[in-house]
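Please review this one:
***
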Amino acid sequence: MPNYLTPGIYVEEISGGSKPLESGATNVVGFLGVAEKGPVNEPILVTNWTAYTKIFGGLHTQGWLGHAVYQFFQNGGTKAYINNLSAVSPPKKVKSSGAAGSEQTEGSAAEDKSASSVKISNPDNITTLIIGKDDGPGKRTGLYLFDEITDISIVAAPGVSEPAAWDAILSHCERNKYRVAILDPPEEVPKGIDTIPMPRDSMYGAYYFPYVQMYDTELETEVFAPPSGGVAGVWGRVDDTRGVHKAPANEIFRGVTGLRYKLTDAEQELLNPKGINCIREFVGRGIRVWGARTFSSDPEWKYINVRRLFCMMERTIQHGTNWAVFEPNTRQLWKKIERTITAFLLRLWRDGALFGDTPEEAFYIRCDDELNPPESIDAGYVIIEIGVAPAKPAEFVVFRISQKSLLEE
């Protein structure tokens, strides 16, 4: 308290009690790929397709990045950081068989190549570009540039299905803790869907199959594109309309006209237990995302919405309680922290993110003498234990129907 010496009226500002925790955005995507033009290894935030085309160009045949970002905004995505990993090589000039001295780009109609025959693919060295290098500030490339951007919560490298690239992306998400990867499968599985290659075990990734068909406005034909961009948009759309706790499944996949493989129930029975989320076409209901699993072997982290809910909660609590650092380590501080976190979890419970008819069933918070003995306090620690019951998706809805006997009363 200030030491007042002169008689008079004084006004003091005091803390109003618990400090509200505000959760950050959960739908900011970091895309890795090769754009048609634009800065290289310089992540730039774009908020719509027009902004992307002005900076990075549009759809092109030397990478899947443009197709993925287009799908992202078509499906409700709003914010994405674009890391263009490499400049594309200019189209080769070839001599025309027409007028003397005229030239055309390779792959033009004059060469009698139809648009559907043009192969779209990432560069051969895409894995090396994604892994990147960390030579210090200003000299980072690839995934290391995303370490500098704390807003990113989803990472995708469209059309990349190399195991080394998968591992690098998953390791990046595990290291940063609060972000999840969306991985793409190979376009073709000639030996059958039971041979689809799987990423390594991780609770920080989701895997979607198959490729989706979309209209390419540059080639003026239908192409099969990797699904990760559109799925990221679906995640963002569900986050905005329902919340991060809602499983991003049973949702319409916008902007697509077909699928590379049309899966049956029997085929999905093989894929779903592995953690492969299927995209399926249903008569009268359109093309929908029909899975919401990670590919983790840990049953606690089987569902992607549970993983993302915990990412959001952990980041919110970490960032929202910085005020407690270096405060006097007393029971008064413990109570302030408890009130702050309780208010945050109460909001989540009322929004339907936590299971339970009462707050006591949905979560608990402990910060007491048992968790904080004198030796812990002397070491400068405050230990808070939080337990929550996340609302898990109703993945299998079972109706049990039987005949009612007329003799029953």
Observations:
- Residues 143 and 172 are 7 Å apart (CA to CA).
- DSSP finds ten helices and 16 strands in the chain.
- The chain has two domains: 28-90+117-306, 322-409.
